[in-house]
Amino acid sequence: MSRHRVPGAKGLARVAVAALLLAACGGGGGGGKTGAAGTSGGTGTAGTAGAGAAGSTGAAGAGAAGSTGAAGAGAAGATGAAGAGAAGTTGAAGQGVAGATGAAGQGAAGATGTAGAGAAGAGAAGAGGPFALTSSAFTAGMEIPLEYKCTNVPPAGMNHSPPLSWTPGPAGTKSYAITLNHNPMGDNSAHWALWDIPASTTSIAANVEHVAMPAMPAGAKQAMQNLDGFMGIGYQGPCPQAANSRQTYQFAVWAIGVANLTGVTSASTTVEAQAAIKKAAIASATLAGTQIQTP
Questions:
Q1: Which pTM was predicted?
Q2: Fewest CB atoms less than 10 Å from the CB: which of 114, 210, 219, 250?
């Protein structure tokens, strides 16, 4: 019969230590799989699991922090660029508007200045320029067309007054008057007197009616006529009495200082009317032409 030796206290202790070491090695492996394999290795399993969880959590925290940081920086950069772009655009637009406004201001000032000078020039010319009389039917020194000649000497005319135009009279002009005279440097016989023409009128059409108050120019008046075989009211055209002798006839426009001439009426003679016109006149302009009798 075999005899088994019973270990002593030291031996039991060594056995226990060995068991613990074996348990630790076995527990570590079991912890990786189930962590519950060793009864006594539960503590080791919990330690390892705790360290593993801590490592995962740490890495996850750092990753989230890095991601968040980058996103923040990106947003800041985008915002910064957008701000700079907007500022640049706004600045340029501000300068453009300022430039356009400046140019417009200068242009308006220039235009106004020129217009002012032009208006002043025109006003001065109207007030102090030459007072002139013209006709679309003939020019100074020309033969007065037959239409405007009297009817009773050959070649017979139509006794129509010619179209006449004139520049505005000087300051103080309140009305106009027109006269026609034969040979102003000679007999100066009176052929026509038309007065009280409104100051706003600076022309008359051909063939003024042979009535005391013709329709045109409105408000004007004419005198009685008894000359060269014509007796009536108004215009008596050039009517040379000497055959083959070219004669001069002078039309005149008179700037009158009153709106309505006093001391004469349509019952007055042409000579009387012309005298009143010349007395009230402040300026005059003339246009002379010729006519001839050719039997």
A1: 0.58
A2: 114
